[in-house]
Amino acid sequence: MAATHDPGPEVAAERGEEHAGASRHPFRIGEGTVRVGTASWTDPTMTAAGVFYPPDAKTAEERLRYYADQFPIVEVDATYYALPNRRMGEVWLERTPPEFTFDIKAHALMTGQPSEVKRLPKEIREELPVELLDKKRIYGRDLPPELYDAIWEQFLDALKPLHSAGKLGAVFLQYPRWFFPSNESRDAIVEARERLGDVSTAVEFRNGSWFNEKNAERTIRFLEKYEIPFVMVDEPQTKSSLPPIMAVTSPRLAVVRFHGRRVETWEAKGIPVVERFRYLYDDDELGEWVPRVREAAAAARDVHVLMNNCYANYGTTNARELAALLQSEA
Fold it and tell me: What pairs with residue 172 in β-bridges?
């Protein structure tokens, strides 16, 4: 990978400081409101001394308060690995300003992916059937219906403080690479949307077959029918990747996530997750998305733009740079 895309935190910090004010608040493009932020505020490479946070931001509370002063939105990925609880939602509510927005990733069991048994809440583990107790990982399909329902109920309960205060953006249903286009898969998406009730959703596919020549039009029609926002992505292009498709499928919300373009680590095994996203976009690459985001803002009331290249300060720097580009073009 060229040094341009992995110059180190010091170089990235200098770039980010040039546009430090551009991303602090939501901004309008036409009739749409755009929020730009990152997909983490807690990654260890980001919280390391001198990378993004000031020296006096040492606790979880201080870091969230600082982050929320710099950006109007964040994506929470921790909820994919562990079910959140009500107190967590209350804490996030207390520590962020009124206009702040949280997008929350659905728990793994909610999107057909495995969860480590040890990470499930105690009350759910205690109700597991005997044959599941010794398993390291389980899937939602393994659970009795009442326990599967309990997963969704606890997830939604945790989000109530944010939802009631107007700080909940959307729940991201991120489906795995083995989630192929089929009637069964589409039914699973509709079921998830129904389970979430009045909580906004957005769907991210991880397999490019949803948008191949055979399925692309049907996928768009399906999402438009149910007004489910399609998560547009910028990601490394491999055989199974989604191309950078521009599609707004709901008048309420459009979402764009940036994963970086580090092809060599995208599907590699046995490496730290953060290494997949260790990529700093240059201005030309960010500029490719300026007309697309503007188009999204013309079609949806809200646009969420999230940098998932959360190695060190790469995501925060690119978020600031893209926000500046979007406003200079507005």
Answer: 105, 202
Rounded distance between C-alpha atoms, residue 145 and residue 148, angstroms: 5
Indicate if the pLDDT at residue 330 is higher than 90: no
Q: Per-residue pLDDT for 329 more than 90?
A: no
Q: State the pTM of this model.
A: 0.96
Residue 43 sits at φ, ψ, to 5 deg, of -60, 135
How does 62-75 read in b/e, with b if 16+ C-beta sit within 10 Å? ebbeebbebbbbbb
Residue 36 CA to residue 260 CA, distance in Å, equals 16
Q: Return d(Cα 209, Cα 203) in angstroms, integer.
A: 15
Cα dist. 94→58, 69, 157, 164 in Å? 18, 14, 17, 13
Distance separating alpha carbons of residues 310 and 41, to the nearest angstrom: 8
Task: Give the tokens for residue 152.
Answer: 């969704």
Pick the more confident residue, 262 or 2.
Answer: 262
CATH class for domain 3-329?
alpha beta
Q: Which two tokens stand for residue 290?
A: 């300026």
Strand partners, 201: 171
Q: For residue 105, which of 67, 125, 75, 127 has the smallest C-alpha distance?
A: 75
The alpha carbon torsion through 226, 232, 235, 239 (nearest 10 deg) reads 40
Query: Residue 209: enclosing H or E segment and its boundaries?
Result: none
Coil, helix or strand at residue 205: coil
- Contact assessment for residue 66 and residue 57, using Cβ atoms and an 8 Å cutoff: yes
Round to whole Å and give the CA distance between 174 and 318: 23
Structure tokens at 23: 């991303």
Name, in order, each residue with C-beta under 8 angstroms of 305's C-beta and a sequence gap of 6 or more: 34, 35, 36, 37, 255, 256, 258, 289, 293, 319, 322, 323
pLDDT tier for residue 224 given thresholds of 50, 70 and 90: very high
pLDDT at 1: 58
Listed in sequence order, the residues at least 6 apart from 40 whose beta carbon sits closer than 8 Å to its beta carbon are: 46, 74, 75, 77, 308, 310, 315
